[in-house]
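# step 3/5: fold
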Amino acid sequence: EEISITVPVSEQQFLEAFLIYPNPADDLFNIRLEGQPDNFLVIDLINLTGQKVWSETLDFQSGTILKAISCENLPRGVYLVRVADARRSSTRKISIQ
């Protein structure tokens, strides 16, 4: 008899680093991602009503991304930064002042 066990892939294996700075931000903030290289990552900026206000697809074959995002045209408030590949996602909060 064969038994199969499904083990979820943890966020730690997906992204070794997911940093957002400065936080809170005034006119721009940086996202630094490090992890297992994959084809592409999608970074979404989502307001607290669930509306996607910015999105970009980036090549993640190097395993490291440093992305500066302008927030000078965004209303003040708390936003979610979601990073996803084809199978997994991870989310952090950013405060825009």
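# step 4/5: annotate
The mean pLDDT is 86.
# step 5/5: archive (pending)
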